[in-house]
Design brief:
The complex is a heterotetramer, with 1 copy of chain A (323 residues), 1 copy of chain B (502 residues) and 2 copies of chain C (334 residues). Chain A has 323 residues and is of the alpha/beta class. Chain A contains 11 helices and 12 strands. Helix content of chain A is 44%, strand content 19%. Chain A is globular, with a radius of gyration of 20 Å. In chain A, 63% of the residues are buried. Chain C is mostly helical and 334 residues long. Classes of the chains: A alpha/beta (323), B alpha/beta (502), C mainly alpha (334). The structure holds adenosine-5'-triphosphate (2 copies) and magnesium ion (2 copies).
Chain lengths: 323, 502, 334, 334
């Protein structure tokens, strides 16, 4: 809990606003907690349950409380810009996880999702070096980071040149059987599930029915890879169809350890929390950020480093629990 | 009979209040074994309330209640059933989605191995349905039956509980003559077997025929008892209303004028195969007699546009109308006081004012704005001319007695000044005082030149009120009887399908 | 009727006072403005669904209508570069059409309101996603959009629908004015016109009302049209307030808020009961709860739970209050 | 009654045939297994809500109950290291308790079912998030979890609840067996026992049923208990099927699927009507639509819309079919 305002009234109080409710954000909260202690600040972690409306009202409430700084993951950056600017006028605003480049936010802390996508594409290549059919599973494609990740995977597999993060050109959401000369890979389809895990699993099952020669499933949101693994396991195709994923759900980590999944890209969410608070504190104390973009490194996790990574994640999950 | 033995069931000084109403102000009643006790009183006297207490449907506030000399207080219907008391409710309470056998044995299904023993249940149900003269298959879905037949099922249900005391709350209000006679046979049979019956009715003729003793309620109190030879029309009326009511049907001969309603070869959805024709002139009171289910309600509803005709034409004052909903009918000057007062006649949770003004709101409104003055006038006129007994115009209709509710229905139509007033069972469930007022009103309106068409299952009413009557049988007009041809025999003849007019 | 409002009003005051005591910043003007703004937005929807609930119906599609209207508005303004007032007109016409469709399906095809509007919930959501390819969109055009030419006018609209009007040092959010006007209109409609009377009558007894010569089907259709229309207005207000529309998310669950507010505000789902003031206060209570949770600093995981409990206890308490009053009156008479 | 099933059955066959024609892979054994599995999972919930709908009630909390049960089960098995069968027992007891609570609030505190279960929807979702701190959790313990000691037993459970039984070359998913047993039990209960009879009776005429000496309150409570119990079983099945539970999302919206299936399957929301077979077929139709959309390759944006239209047309068609049959019968008689 972040009931910091009343107990330590002289210490700066910040708000860390997510874009929704997700375990990912609780791992970020762990970083927030670490930073809270380390820098002697207090911070509320707010998770808007239903999109832009709740995000707006929560930030308004924070402004009303007289908060000293906000780190937010804007849901719809372009259109939210006027409101974000309003926040800027009243307090320190930085963005994290997703950026709002047109707003007056002081700095953006985030992973380069396009690069991360390319790294994921690299994992796919090492999983099925002989090429074949690949399919992408994702919760929603309306989020920029999801589209960037997807594009990164596609570009890497189709051997396209590296694109600039700000100007990524996207393949249509509905495009099927993407392939290119000089590439051994075909991206047969992308399926969304709107955050319904049951749907995610049945999407994976339907994919196996429809595409007999599917070689690799790529899950872009945390719950996608475990859903794919489940479906593959039940179809007795473990090993035949590889899984590469994003994020760090336990089931995925277990599968990597057991050799049932090839690897994953972790954004190390706790770093988000930690760096955001660190940044807010330094700006609060008058320092100007050197750069508008603070790129957080991502981590490629596979069999080689799974043990230590999982240990760390467990520790963070414990820390991130809300009072 | 039970003169010497102590009463089987006895209540003393029973009180019961509802929010805003003191329904029973300390009433007493006793019932001997094998006795048929009639309980009479005006609407709202508290008869049904007491019966519900006796049957465990609702608890009394205070008072003594003994069965076989043993004090009891029922907390549920089952408690009452254990003591052998069964109630046939005034309102129908069948489950429309279940078949007859299931309804008869609802709550008392025979089981075998934990499952319902359908064959036994059907066999047993057959017995009781035969007893009340219902020869439909036991698999018939209850909801598909007309009200009268449903009432018989209710009676069969009560009989099947093998009760020692059977309470019948206005059981004949929707029964035909023939069915009523069957019921009387059943009641007399029960008396022979030593089963006691409490019989509630507003039809004093029935009381005279059946009752060993009569208890009269007035305003939630005992008004007196009558036994043996004392049971006659005048005595009962005196106790009920506290004064004499002579000259019940105060008829004059009416001057009939031009034809107001002309129904020609109309087919109703209930009887698509048969068509009917009739006419009503202004200043005339025309009755429609017939057995329950003969299609009388259906006919009135068709004229009123509720269930549009399948074929044929209807003319009002010579004008051909396409009556496909009540609005057109009302515009043409037709009004209907429906048979089912609570469902179709009133909006029970609304006030006397809101109910009375409902049809005339639009006429009186100014471009859709409510016209308070006009509304108040309509209400006041209705309350005064109909003698509606209500504390204020804001009283909720649900809390008024049946008679007063019926008067609201009439009042709201009179405000529309209809050319043709149709009344479907205008006095069903209405006490004798109110009944008389409604008859007077019909007289007065006819005298003013209104055309009146009414349906009644009460022979007396047809004989007493109609200038002319049509008798219906299975969806057709079996015959037309003029004033001087009207008699109980001639009506029954036609109603039972004997087309040779007497 | 007044008893109804009393209960919910007490609840409003109680939560208000408690929150203010725990965190005095709750009372500052900025927070009050926000509270008024959000309450107004949600109250508009709740008011709309109240018409339907009064007739004994239900509308589960409100949230999806809000979403679809916001989407269509944004497409017209931003992508199509349509004349701003025509765009508003089209979206409102759309919402009227939806309500009309509901009404016709319910009265003529005789499908139950729950089913019709549940299907509506699914279909309109799907339409919104399909129209936009599920991409976020906002009503205000950015450079390069076809609507950029109308930018000034659109910003004017933005002010009309989501601006603030300074009254002394207090900035009154414009949605509050919309709510106020709609409230007065709704109250007059329900209590002073024959159509309002008919809605109550048919909610209490549809057959009986029909037998009195009232076109109950038309009145029911009217109720659904009004409900969707109010949802349409809410959709426009939300679009301008948020400047951003998520086709898959905007409006999700709002029908539940709206219905909850209507019920908490004294509408009976059985029909025939309800007051404008009660519904508006109840909508404010729900927003107040959310605000309080944030101001007091309670874990957001508990938000839903607290809301659920308050609604439940509110409804039970209201029932209890009504009973007690009725009993006392009876005792006085006896 | 048979007319009801006929309509929905025709729909099932039609969609089946059309999909198979467009994409023959639809028919392969693996896809059929999946279809059976998902249909079974959703049908269990739909069956549960049918009890409540037959009494004329409604349960909006099913999805949240599924989520909460899955969360509690996972906590017991994985984190607490509880004896697996006790854990199953506790979760089922929890679902029974929830149903009991609903029933008591509805019958004793006289709160409308819509309100009680709407609050339930909010509260249980919140509880699930709060209990887990919103972390994803699965029923199967991993190394280091307290439940790891019971791993073998839990994997046994996993097989029971989400395994497959080979019948020749066809692998029958175990949820289908659960559904089969529950179906038979529900059908016997509804059609052959007095309690089932009472549920139908009170759904049609509550007063009348009470006057027949039946404890209608107790029967209503029973219906809600059964509904939550079936949701509880579905929760366990989902937990093992997905091996992972997201407290904020698992089960979201499932009540709408369940109610839609019940209605499409011939239950009337007015109460007193419904068949087990109809509901199960309808649940299968809904899953079939989803599967077909994937197989045929329609944009997922349209999923909801197609589902909504099919439900609406299905219900209208069913009504039409019934009327036609009734008219024919009447004509024959006349
Ligand atoms: N549930 C109730 N709530 C409020 N008032 C009631 C209730 N039941 C009955 N009453 C009132 O109690 C009084 C007695 O009603 P009751 O039904 O016993 O009369 P009754 O003698 O049976 O009349 P009728 O001949 O019309 O059937 C009436 O004033 C009635 O309005
Ligand atoms: N809408 C309808 N559809 C089909 N059958 C109907 C409909 N309405 C009535 N019936 C049937 O038509 C017949 C005539 O019913 P109606 O109510 O008109 O008779 P009635 O002579 O007025 O008898 P009662 O005294 O019971 O009112 C009955 O068998 C009834 O079941
Ligand atoms: Mg009575
Ligand atoms: Mg009749």
């Amino acid at each position: 809990g972040g009931d910091g305002t009343s107990s330590q009234s002289d210490a700066p109080s910040f708000a860390y606003v997510t874009n929704g409710i997700d375990p990912f954000w609780d791992l970020c909260a762990a970083g927030v907690r670490i930073a809270e202690k380390e820098f002697g600040v207090s911070c509320e972690v707010l998770m808007p349950p239903k999109g832009v409306v709740d995000q707006k009202r929560m930030m308004e409430a924070m402004l009303a409380k007289g908060i000293d700084g906000v780190a937010v993951s804007p849901i719809d950056a372009d259109n939210q810009t006027p409101f974000l600017n309003e926040v800027c006028q009243n307090t320190i605003l930085i963005t994290q996880d997703a950026d709002a480049p047109k707003s007056d936010r002081l700095v953006y802390i985030g992973t380069n999702n396009y690069k991360a996508g390319r790294a994921l594409g690299g994992l796919v290549k090492s999983a099925i070096p002989d090429g074949g059919e690949v399919m992408i599973f994702v919760g929603r494609l309306e989020q920029l980071n999801a589209r960037q990740r997807r594009q990164g995977v596609i570009d890497e597999l189709l051997e396209r040149p590296m694109q600039d993060l700000d100007q990524v050109k996207f393949d249509s959401v509905d495009s099927v059987n993407l392939s290119a000369e000089g590439s051994k890979y075909v991206i047969v389809d992308t399926r969304t599930d709107n955050f319904d895990k049951a749907k995610a699993k049945s999407n994976a099952e339907d994919a196996m029915t429809k595409y007999k020669d599917l070689k690799c499933m790529v899950g872009l949101f945390a719950y996608n890879p475990p859903a794919c693994i489940d479906a593959i396991k039940e179809a007795n195709k473990l090993g035949q169809i590889k899984v590469c994923g994003f994020d760090e759900q336990d089931a995925l980590l277990q599968a990597i350890q057991d050799g049932h999944a090839h690897g994953t890209i972790s954004q190390q969410p706790w770093e988000y929390g930690y760096e955001s608070i660190k940044m807010l504190k330094s700006i609060y104390e008058g320092e100007q950020p050197a750069n508008k973009y603070f790129e957080l490194p991502f981590l490629v996790v596979d069999k080689s480093n799974i043990k230590e990574f999982w240990e760390k994640k467990k520790k963070m999950a414990e820390l991130g629990k809300q009072g | 009979m039970g003169a010497v033995s102590s009463p089987y069931l006895e209540v003393k000084e029973l009180r019961k209040s509802f929010p805003g109403v003191l329904a029973l102000k300390g009433v007493s009643l006793s019932l001997a074994e094998g006795e048929v006790l009639a309980l009479i009183g005006e609407n709202g006297a508290g008869k049904s309330t007491l019966m519900k207490i006796l049957a465990g449907v609702q608890p009394a506030d205070e008072g003594d209640f003994q069965v076989k000399g043993e004090a009891v207080s029922f907390r549920s219907v089952n408690d009452a059933m254990d003591k052998g008391i069964a109630l046939i409710h005034q309102e129908l309470n069948l489950c429309g989605n279940l078949d007859l056998a299931s309804n008869v044995f609802l709550g008392r299904e025979p089981t075998r191995g934990g499952l319902i023993d359908e064959p036994t249940m059907r066999r047993e149900a057959r017995k009781y349905l035969d007893l009340v003269g219902l020869d439909l298959p036991v698999e018939t879905i209850a909801g598909s039956l007309p009200i009268g037949k449903q009432q018989l099922v209710e009676i069969a249900k009560a009989l099947s509980s093998n009760a020692r005391v059977l309470i019948m709350d206005e059981p004949t209000s929707s029964l035909s003559q023939k069915e009523t006679e069957t019921l009387f046979g059943v009641v007399k049979d029960l008396r022979e077997k030593g089963i006691s019956v409490i019989y509630i009715s507003h039809r004093l003729g029935e009381v005279i025929e059946l009752a060993d003793r009569v208890t009269v309620f007035r305003d939630g109190e005992n008004a007196g008892d009558l036994a043996g030879d004392e049971i006659n029309h005048n005595n009962m009326v005196k106790l009920m209303v506290g004064r004499d009511l002579s000259e019940f049907y105060d008829r004059k001969v009416h001057e009939s004028g031009s034809i107001v309603l002309n129904v020609d070869q109309v087919c109703t959805p209930a009887f698509p195969a048969s068509s009917l024709s009739l006419e009503v002139k202004s200043g005339e009171i025309v009755g429609i007699a017939g057995l329950v289910g003969a299609g009388r309600t259906e006919l009135l509803q068709t004229i009123f546009g509720v269930t549009p005709a399948l074929a044929g034409t209807i003319e009002i004052c010579g004008e051909l109308l396409a009556l496909d909903n009540p609005r057109t009918a009302i515009k043409a000057g037709i009004a209907l006081a429906p048979e089912d007062r609570k469902q179709h006649g009133l909006v029970l949770p609304m006030s006397v004012r809101e109910n009375t003004s409902l049809p005339s709101l639009k006429r009186d409104a100014n471009r859709g704005w409510l016209n308070d003055a006009a509304e108040a006038k309509v209400t006041n006129t209705a309350v005064k001319s109909m003698k509606i007994k209500t504390p204020t115009n804001e009283q909720i209709a649900r809390f008024l007695s049946g008679g007063n509710q019926q008067k609201i229905v009439l009042g709201k139509w009179l405000a529309m000044k209809p050319k043709l007033l149709m009344l479907d069972e205008p006095t069903r469930g209405i006490d004798i005082g109110a009944k008389r007022e409604i008859y007077k009103l019909m007289e007065k309106l006819a005298g003013e030149g209104m055309a009146i068409l009414f349906v009644s299952s009460e022979m007396e009413e047809i004989l007493g009120m109609a200038d002319r009557a049509y008798v219906m049988h299975e969806g057709t007009i079996a015959g037309e009887l003029d004033r001087d041809q009207l008699s109980e025999e001639s009506i029954m003849h036609l109603a039972t399908g004997n087309l040779v007019a007497a | 009727m007044k008893k109804n409002i009393l209960g919910i009003f007490i609840l409003l005051v109680a939560i208000f006072v408690i929150t203010a005591m725990i965190n005095p910043k709750f009372l500052n003007a900025y927070n009050m403005q926000n509270l008024i703004k959000w309450s107004s937005l949600y109250a508009v929807m709740s008011l709309g669904v109240a018409f339907v609930i009064i007739t004994g119906g239900i509308d589960l599609s409100i949230g999806s209508v809000v979403g679809l209207v916001a989407v269509v508005l944004s497409i017209c303004l931003k992508l199509e570069g349509m004349d701003p007032w025509s765009a508003i007109g089209i979206t409102l016409a759309l919402s009227l059409l939806i309500g009309f469709l509901h009404g016709v399906l319910i009265t003529k095809a005789k499908v139950q309101p729950f089913v019709v509007t549940l299907c509506g919930l699914l279909v309109y959501r799907s339409m919104g996603r399909w129209l936009t390819d599920n991409q976020s969109i906002g009503p205000i055009p950015l450079e390069g959009d076809a609507g950029y030419a109308n930018l000034e006018q659109i910003q004017g609209l933005d002010f009309v629908f989501s601006g603030k009007i300074a009254i002394g040092s207090f900035n009154l959010p414009t949605p509050a004015i919309f709510l106020f006007v709609l409230c007065i209109a709704a109250a007059i409609f329900l209590r002073r016109t024959i159509w309002g009377r008919y809605l109550f009558a048919l909610g209490n007894n549809e057959e009986g009302t029909r037998y009195s010569g009232i076109d109950t089907d038309r009145m029911k259709i009217l109720a659904y049209v009004l409900c969707s229309f109010f949802a349409g207005i809410a959709g426009i207000l939300f679009a301008f307030e948020l400047d951003s529309v998520q086709p898959a998310q905007t409006g999700e669950f709002y029908e539940l808020y709206a219905i909850a507010a209507a019920v908490l505000g004294g509408c009976s789902l059985r029909g025939g009961e309800g007051t404008v003031l009660g519904v508006v206060i109840a909508a404010a209570v729900i927003r107040l709860i959310y605000n309080s949770i944030n101001m007091v600093g309670i874990s957001t995981h508990l938000e839903f739970g607290i809301l659920g409990l308050v609604i439940l206890l509110g409804v039970i308490g209201d029932e209890f209050l009504k009973k007690t009053v009725a009993r006392k009156q009876a005792a006085q008479k006896a």
